[in-house]
Amino acid sequence: MTILIVEDNATNALILKRLAGKVTDEDIIIEADGARALSLCHNTFFSMLIVDYMVPGMTGLQFVKAIRMLRRYDEVPVIMITADQDPKLRETAVAMGVTGFLTKPVDAVTFRDLLAAHVGYAPATLAAHR
């Protein structure tokens, strides 16, 4: 299985990839542009999506809305990361299908714990893609 990180800041993306690598042996792909990330999701099945709220091409919320329209991504965990502290953003994100929400700067332990809670998550829709 493979995890997709959608993050336009190269340093942040590498930190997230390194932290995720401490929790899972899954392949981890990084894409900086939301529209290109969505295109990747049409062609490749990812077992988890980690999405920054502000990326080029589309917002993280637009990405999540589009991804949740793809049936095979109905139950895939989506973690959103943002520097935005607005509680309404969190409410909106969760209502759109975000399963985990973290604010920047990301606490390493919290991130790893959240990832660990979802790694290996295998409802019927995920198991069918293994």
UniProtKB/TrEMBL annotation:
Q: What SMART domains does this protein map onto? A: REC
Q: Which example biological process does GO assign this protein?
A: phosphorelay signal transduction system
Keywords (alphabetical) are: Phosphoprotein, Transcription, Transcription regulation
Q: Where is the Response regulatory domain?
A: 2-119
Identify the species of origin.
Rhizobium daejeonense
In this record, what's one Pfam family?
Answer: Response_reg
For the modification 4-aspartylphosphate, the affected residues are: D52
Among Gene3D superfamilies, the record links this protein to: 3.40.50.2300
Which top-rank group of organisms is this from? Bacteria
The answer to keyword Nucleotidyltransferase applying to this record is no
**What is this protein's name?**
Response regulator
